[in-house]
Design brief:
This protein is α+β, with helices and mostly antiparallel strands. It has four domains: 22-67; 69-168, PAS domain (Beta-Lactamase, 2-Layer Sandwich); 173-248; 256-410, Heat Shock Protein 90, CATH 3.30.565. It has nine helices and 15 strands. The protein has helices spanning 34-68, 85-91, 95-98, 113-124, 170-216, 222-248, 260-272, 295-312, 362-372, and strands at 21-23, 29-31, 70-75, 80-83, 129-136, 142-153, 159-168, 256-259, 280-293, 317-326, 329-335, 376-381, 387-394, 401-404, 409-410. Strands 8, 9, 10, 11, 12, 13, 14 and 15 form an eight-stranded mixed β-sheet that branches. β3 and β4 (80-83) form a beta hairpin. α5 runs antiparallel to α6 (222-248), α7 (260-272) packs across α8 and α8 (295-312) packs antiparallel against α9 (362-372). The chain is elongated and about 130 Å long. The two termini are 56 Å apart.
């Protein structure tokens, strides 16, 4: 943090005063009198005192702002010319890394392009912009700031610099998100009770009745095929309802020490053995670590991410599963080569989906599972297209890597 400014108060002196020439009322030069020189010196002293006081107040104001806010100054192109200590602390960059860079170094990819265009249009015409921005720190974590950007104008009335004053609102956004989730879960809980009693049980009866009717018909009957289609749709509906019930009423995680290799093995086997995905290569990279997890729950979350990645690739190309380490955390990442996710939306909200037949609960369950393990989920939009989802999980104290992960598995 910045140290409080000290304010030296040197006494003004007459030493060095230029005993110059004054002018009379007709503009003729004459020697200044002692009285006139003393009066001029007193006026100079008052001006110096006013200037010194203004400098003190300015330094105090800067100190107060630096202590309370995250401050940066850029030129009109967005190149950073000044950052205070709080900016460096929250962004996790050194000052030398920030000066001369532009704010794209902090771009989280969360906001749509129109959001940023509107910001630049507003400050470019000399107006103050206010809003909330999600940034990405050097270590890949995200943080939210309530931002005010003030254009500093030149003599022609055009912006010459932009002063950005920010406040960290990451915790507030987290609480807001939890409140939304809590409200959604309360609604889902009520819905789940109705579904379990009024919908799911009758579906089992319908499916059973279809099987009985099918057996009574000739095997080559067209009605058998129609009934088969109906039963498949009933089963698909039942699976969607089961996913909804699992999300609304999740079971308690049964945590135990487990290797990441064990967690990753089953979901990778499911995908690589599925005939629909025979043109997809699933690569495993990284090392094997010990984590404390429920391998069944975590494996299901990884399977959701893998299926999403394969479908984003349109069931071809390469999907990468990577095990990594970040300080005191282990990351399990799944990367695809698809078109990427829509900008400016919370893809973890229940019922959000980009698929025609999707339930919109897969990613919500992934986040729910990560949080049940004391971790989180991060999204990274990859250059050139594609998306990386990362489960960030706490690593047990003293746990070491076990061995390098085995080579990629390919169909």
């Amino acid at each position: 943090m910045a140290s409080r400014p000290s304010h030296p108060r040197d006494e003004p002196s007459l030493d060095g005063v230029d005993w110059g020439v004054a002018s009379d009322e007709h503009g003729h030069g004459r020697e200044a009198t002692i009285g006139e020189l003393e009066a001029a010196n007193r006026e100079l002293e008052r001006s110096n005192a006013s200037l010194a006081q203004a400098n003190i107040e300015l330094a105090d104001l800067k100190y107060a702002i630096d202590e309370a806010s995250i401050v940066a100054i850029t030129d009109v192109k967005g190149v950073i010319a000044y950052v205070n200590d709080r900016f460096c602390k929250i962004s996790k960059y050194e000052r030398d890394e920030l000066l001369g860079a532009d704010h794209r170094i902090l771009n989280s990819g969360y906001h749509p392009k129109e959001f940023m265009r509107n910001l630049w249009r507003t400050i470019g015409r000399g107006s103050v912009w206010r809003g909330e921005i999600r940034n990405r720190a050097k270590d890949g974590t995200f943080y939210w700031v309530d931002t005010t950007i003030v254009p500093l104008m030149d003599r022609t009335g055009k912006p010459r610099q932009y002063l950005a004053i920010r406040t960290d609102i990451t915790e507030r956004k987290r609480v807001e998100s939890l409140l939304v989730q809590k409200e959604t879960m309360a609604q889902l809980g009520t819905m789940a009770a109705v579904i379990a009693h009024e919908v799911k049980n009758p579906l089992a009866g319908i499916s059973g009745a279809i099987q009985v009717i099918s057996k009574r018909l000739p095997a080559d009957s067209s009605e058998v095929r129609i009934l088969g289609d109906i039963r498949e749709r009933v089963l698909a509906l039942n699976q969607s309802l089961t996913a909804l019930l699992s999300f609304a009423r999740p079971r308690v995680a049964q945590l135990r020490p487990v290797s990441t290799k064990e967690v990753v093995a089953h979901p990778m086997m499911v995908v690589t053995n599925d005939p629909r995905y025979e043109h997809v290569e699933v690569q495993l990279r990284g090392k094997d670590f010990t984590i404390v997890a429920d391998p069944e729950l975590l494996g299901q979350a990884l399977l959701n991410l893998l299926i999403n990645a394969v479908q984003a690739n349109e069931e071809r190309g390469t999907v990468v599963v990577e095990v990594g380490q970040r300080e005191r955390h282990v990351t399990l990442s799944v990367s695809d080569q698809g078109p990427g996710l829509p900008e400016g939306v919370d893809v973890f909200q229940p019922f959000f989906t980009t698929k025609i037949a999707g339930t919109g609960l897969g990613l919500a369950v992934v986040r729910q599972t990560a949080e049940a393990h004391g971790g989180s989920v991060e999204i990274e939009r990859l250059e050139g297209g594609g998306t990386r989802f990362s489960l960030v999980l706490p690593r047990p104290v003293g746990a070491d890597e076990i061995a390098p992960a085995k080579a990629a598995r390919k169909r």
